[in-house]
Amino acid sequence: MVQFQEHIITELLEDTNGGLVVTSSGLGLHKLISSLFLLHHHSQGCLLILSATPSQKASILRNYENVTQSQISDEVQNSPAEITSDLPANQRLSLYSSGGILFITSRILIVDLLTRRLPTTAVAGLIVLNAHLLSDTSTEAFIVRILRSTNRDLYVRAFSDRPHSMVSGFAKAERTLKCLFLRKLHLWPRFQVYVSQDLERNPPEVVDIRVPMSTYMLGIQKAVIEVMDACLKEMRKTNKVDVEDLTVENGLFKSFDEIVRRQLDPIWHTLGKRTKQLVSDLKTLRKLLDYLVRYDAVNYLKFLDSLRASESFRSVWIFAESSYKIFEYAKKRVYHFGRSDSGKLGQIKTASTKKRKLNDNKKDEDQSTNTESRVVLEEVLEEPPKWKVLLDVLVEIQEERDKRALSGEEKDHLDEGDDNGIVLVACKDEHSCMQLEDCITNGPQKVMREEWEKYLLSKVQLQALPKRNAKKAKELKGFGVLDGVVATAGKKAEVSSISKQEHDALLAAASEISKRINKDTNAEAGDQKHVDDGGFGKGKGKGKKKKSSAGEKTNNDVASTDKAMEGGFSDEVFHRKHDQGLDAESSRETKKLPPVVFYALESDQKILDILKPSTIIAYHPDIAFVREVEIYKAENPLRNVKVYFLFYEDSTEVQKFEASVRRENGAFESLIRQKSLMMIPVDQDGRCLGLDSSNEPQSVISQNLITRKAGGRREAEKEIQVIVDMREFMSSLPNVLHQKGMRIIPVTLEVGDYILSPLICVERKSIQDLFGSFASGRLYHQVEMMSRYYRIPVLLIEFSQDKSFSFQSASEIGDDVTPNSIISKLSLLVLHFPRLRIIWSRSLHATAEIFASLKANQDEPDEVKAIRVGVPSEEGVIENDVRAENYNTSAVELLRRLPGVTDSNYRVLMDGCKSLAELAMLPMERLAELMGGQKAAKMLRDFLDAKYPTLL
């Protein structure tokens, strides 16, 4: 461990109650927690770890195993275990009583606490990760409140490495402390004195390489930023959001979407389609900037093609003045297309110029067929500039090592740090890792060639798909004005769509590639058969296998390509291939490269301590990974570590990295100010009182009511019980009900979510769940089951506190019944189930108030009966099935199918007679009275009295 990490643990242990630790990202949080494991002894009780992600859990366990390998064998019994839903209750109880370290989900723990499977005195402490995700209604706060109420010696240690998330919302840090019943907030930013001293004592050698972007990449970046700025201006015009947060710099981060949504959530249902689409467009534009520096030119063009296909009819950003440049420059990075006269390549300027030129050429063809003209498709296949720089850096690293080995320095170098020679390349995602590995193995030209062939073959497969709604596709519809320019469908089509001849040229190139691959596959198959017959060795290497698989994949594409080309152009297609660069590739192969390991930052695995690399290349720089490298060097001061940073010069990649540092520093400065001003209420023993409403003083009215009774004595309050389905503990409502003083009984229910009394059953639906339940038909079945088993079935529609208390804006509510309208669906549901009651709740706390009022004059629910409702016995008979008492469902279905019986009179008939036999004996006058008319009664009587036909 680094010395400042020991300071953090020492400071945390000073308060036996625990504390909340907020650190900068990448400062080795998993090592802090594994060190706390070493301080735990099983005699104290069990230590529970909550809210750990799979990657965090794996990192903590791996670090703990590395530390305990050097410890004595007595420590092995303390190895952490994991409690999952697969473990039965008795095994969970034995693990709790063992006093070990347990990873557990909050849902399992709260159920075991409420069912008293876990005695609270058996818990020594809690470690809560990702504390920035907590709130006063979260399940973790529910757990801490129950444990604190009966176990005063319990300690809670919470951790977070996302300082910017701890300052989102009003007094987030203070509310987090209160919901965990904590008083101490420990802040450890990168600029803290102990941290900066430890990390800067032996810093790694850093080489900052600024790679210039290509001309087209700069053009795309400029165009995307212009479009993003235009969308932000449109967003500001809505007067619905805070203008200060809407900047291009904030738009580079993923949290920007959260900022906008958090401001718009209260009124999200009342917004128009245009504003909602602007929010989605900003997310798309952020991806375009991110993917520009992450992916190669062909994959970037493929992504743009998918956007053009999926978003062209509804997007706002695609109508911006600069949007066509994005598509145009992305295409020019991959290929150039034009018409050459007398062998000269036609240059493409803009989409409108290109289209007009092609039309003019068509007119020339019609007038004279002797003009020599042919279509030229020239491959460009621009390689990402970082690829060449990465290869040069690897060659440079190997040359330096060779020089050291010759001069005798390598031996001294090994003695100092046990250098294993590994070069670690850190990329953003797995795709980049695989592509760079392929680039080092086979060369950049071959990688780009493979991506280009995949792109062309995907065009063939798309062309072979059956066409649907061809006539409707011509009617292009768009909406909105962007940057003061009215966008029309015709302009959009001119800008974003490629010409038919260009499309046909791509298909012709794809046909050529498909035929070549098919030919190579057949040739290799014949060679392989010859080899097999001759009894020679198996296979011919990885390259052959890869080509063979590609050939098998595209074996059936030739026919579809030829079919697609039947209606093509009459001109000769000239396919000018990209220069293969054989000299450069052969020279690269002669140069020796060091052993390279690729690491995906998205995997969030801490591998520096495992691989122990001597050289690290940050291909996609990330602030958290930079801190991890600093920690790694501080823990290994004798090891020579060299770090290369590859940045695109004048790119949003640099801006994003620098802005992330500024944002983190600003978050810590805000937390420092909050810490100096926050007020934490404590009891006489100095312990935090938290947010529990039971600690609030009684109102004056309730106190006066008590004094009017004899001696002012308080009556023994009746315990209010609510039976809750196990699945409902994914929500926060059980927590809020417990805050209101209700006893929560968790069981597995077949019918309903909450049982308030023997008569009242509640099915809770959030807004999102309500829409999904209507779409799947699940809600109809749930209401039907509640209506069968309970006298008062209730559908609770629960809104969020920070969102609009409405389904849709008033302008969207129509008078007609439509199948897509949620109001229409609810109306039909109520008509079909007249006993169903609907409760509209603004928030979780409002729901708790409603439940309390509903239970005011009701008996408490029976847990045993609630569990048995709807559950068949071994013989398949449902015990205590109230359907036999209330309904004979088969008879009801038969009654509703009789002539003259309608939805409006069948319930009156059921109330007027007890059985179908009694119905058949009713006189005509009584039938007319029940059915509401002579006509309906006569239809039913004629049907019942009709004789059965006989065969003579």
UniProtKB/TrEMBL annotation:
GO terms for biological process: double-strand break repair via homologous recombination; nucleotide-excision repair involved in interstrand cross-link repair; resolution of meiotic recombination intermediates. It holds the Pfam family ERCC4. Residues 539-548 have a biased composition (Basic residues). InterPro entries: ERCC4_domain, Restrct_endonuc-II-like, RuvA_2-like, XPF_nuclease. It is found in: Nucleus. Residues 721-801 form the ERCC4 domain. GO terms for molecular function: damaged DNA binding; single-stranded DNA binding; single-stranded DNA endodeoxyribonuclease activity. It comes from the Eukaryota. Residues 520-535 have a biased composition (Basic and acidic residues). Residues 350-373, 520-563 are annotated as: Disordered. Keywords: DNA damage, DNA repair, DNA-binding, Endonuclease, Hydrolase, Nuclease, Nucleus. Coiled coil: none annotated. One of its GO terms (cellular component) is nucleotide-excision repair factor 1 complex. Belongs to the XPF family. This is Dna repair endonuclease uvh1. It comes from Nicotiana attenuata (Coyote tobacco). The gene is UVH1.
